[in-house]
Write a structure and sequence with these properties.
Elements: H1 2-10, E1 14-16, E2 28-31, H2 36-43, H3 56-64, H4 72-82, E3 87-90, H5 97-109, E4 123-126, H6 130-143, E5 151-154, H7 161-169, E6 173-176, H8 178-186, E7 197-200, H9 203-208, H10 212-220, E8 227-232, H11 237-246, E9 251-255, E10 265-271, H12 277-287, E11 293-296, H13 300-314, E12 318-321, H14 327-339, E13 344-347, H15 349-352, E14 362-365, H16 372-379, E15 389-395, H17 400-410, E16 415-416, H18 438-447, H19 449-474
Helix pairs in contact: 4-5, 5-6, 8-10, 16-17
The structure holds adenosine monophosphate.
Adenosine monophosphate binds near residues 67, 70, 71, 96 and 384.
């Protein structure tokens, strides 16, 4: 009965034809629940790992990981990827999407045995961040441990020579961030001519991070006849445009709508003054005895400052992870946090993308994100694989509009708890939010007419100077 109820509540499997440009070959499978336990119930009786077309070596590795049933994205994606079809998948981290493409790609590699030339590769996975690249590379190793394929991970912030060396030695699978891969490609360090499958993981983030030009340049080096899989948490117009240029007759797979939050995550908002957030965070960590908490700040500078203050004023061990940190520092911070040597990991949205920590119990929004989707991504770091999680947001007067947007987006009202000792001072007025985001400030600048006029003036002057120089040379 329970299973039927869950099925009714969550497994609203809609098979629809969606986007006009993809006509009637497309299936949109929308499976509501976002946590593995519920997903397990929903997919039960639909598919088993042994029915997906995976070979015994892969099934053995999956079993050793303790997976008993495929998640919805795995049940849907694995057979069609093995068939060689292009896939457009709307899936967030936490849905099991990495195994959803890694397992069938490893399976496909076993179907043929082409002679590989120097620096040629068969599978390329592009990811937005180094952390995600490293995690996907780990998954490839884990699931492929009983197969003999070689893989390597390529990202910036570390020396390029070992990466070039491993490509020279020969690998079938490369997991890379676009910038460094393009550097390597421009030095003829890699040969895409034998590429069979390209995966774009977290494509929406890659576009947000401005990788579109790098991706297009890389694409121009790849064979037209290939399989392409595109994974994205959201389906913006830009993603659809990218997809329609890259994919051929894709099968569309969607699990968990982009604005859904997992029912396993309890959410709470603590109203607090902007200057007292650090104090409140320290109190929550201590009184509730939180051992492992991922804290989100809006800016890199804010992340560093909070870390320092937590250690200095409250004696709480904290580490920061963001784009200004070296790869070594980021890897160490994550490892220390996972091992329990550091109690608080303070992250910005982009750095946290792809961070996969099993059984992470607490996520704190020290500052609310500007984009409601980011709230869903942030809190989705907890409550994974059927575990219970807690997402806490410290909200000051400046952030009331952001909170309203989040509630509208997630179609839910988040519980508010006012703590006596932190009751907000009603005389404090709202201030504009500092984003620390260069793109935003650039946009604002462009909106400013004076700046535009100054820009035009500067461009004109540059052109006049050039003309001047030319006429001097002629004289
Ligand atoms: P991902 O969405 O790929 O980031 O995966 C999220 C987490 O789910 C990872 O920790 C995986 O190890 C785990 N996972 C993946 N597939 C399964 C499965 N079928 N059953 C249980 N856990 C899984």
């Amino acid at each position: 009965m329970r299973q039927i109820a869950l099925y009714k509540n969550y497994a609203i499997i809609r098979i629809l034809c969606v986007h006009r440009s993809y006509t009637d070959k497309i299936y949109l499978l929308s499976l509501r629940p976002t946590n593995a336990k519920m997903q397990g119930l929903v997919t039960r009786n639909i598919m088993k790992f042994t029915e997906l077309g995976l070979n015994a070596s892969l099934l053995k590795a999956v079993k050793e990981e303790g997976y008993t049933e495929p998640t919805p994205i795995q049940a849907q994606a694995i057979p069609v990827v093995i068939e060689g079809k292009d896939v457009l998948a709307a899936a967030q981290t936490g849905t099991g999407k990495t195994a959803g493409f890694t397992l069938p790609l490893l399976e496909r590699l076993t179907h043929t045995n082409p002679k590989m030339g120097k620096k040629q590769i068969r599978v390329l996975v592009l990811t937005p961040t180094r952390e995600l690249a490293a995690q996907v590379a780990d998954s490839v190793k884990t699931y492929g441990k009983y197969l003999s394929y070689r893989s390597t991970v390529i990202f910036g912030g570390v020396g390029v020579n070992p990466q070039l060396a491993s490509l020279r030695k020969g690998v079938e699978i490369v997991i890379a961030t676009p910038g460094r891969l393009l550097d390597i490609a421009s030095q003829d360090g890699i040969d895409f001519s034998a590429l069979e499958t390209l995966v774009l993981d977290e494509a929406d983030r890659m576009l947000d991070m401005g990788f579109i030009h790098d991706i297009k340049k890389l694409m121009a080096l790849m064979p037209k006849k290939r399989q392409t899989l595109l994974f994205s948490a959201t389906f913006s117009k830009e993603i659809k445009a990218l997809a329609s240029g890259l994919l051929k007759d894709p099968v569309l797979v969607e699990v968990a709508r982009e604005n859904s939050t997992s029912g396993q995550i309890s959410q709470v908002v603590y109203p607090v003054d902007r200057t007292r957030k650090r104090e409140l965070l320290a109190q929550l960590i201590k009184t509730k005895n939180w051992k492992q908490v991922l804290v989100f700040t809006r800016t890199k500078h804010g992340a560093n400052r909070l870390c320092k203050q937590l250690e200095e004023y409250s004696g709480i061990k904290a580490a920061a992870i963001h784009g200004n940190k070296s790869q070594g520092a980021r890897t160490k911070a994550l490892a220390d946090f996972k091992a329990g040597n550091v109690r608080v990991l303070v992250a910005t949205d982009i750095a946290a993308r792809g961070i996969d920590i099993d059984q992470l119990p607490h996520v704190v929004n020290y500052e609310l994100p500007n984009v409601p989707e980011d709230y869903v991504h942030r809190i989705g770091r907890t409550g994974r694989a059927g575990m219970k999680g807690e997402a806490v947001s410290l909200v000051c007067i400046d952030e009331h509009a952001l909170l309203r947007n989040i509630e509208k987006f997630t179609k839910s009202s988040i519980k508010k708890v006012e703590l006596e000792a932190f009751r907000p001072d009603l005389s404090i007025e709202a201030e504009p939010i500092q984003t620390g985001n260069k793109n935003n400030s650039r946009k604002r600048k462009h909106k400013n007419k004076e700046n535009i006029a100054a820009q035009i003036g500067a461009n004109l002057q540059a052109k006049l100077n050039k003309l001047d120089k030319k006429s001097h040379r002629r004289k």
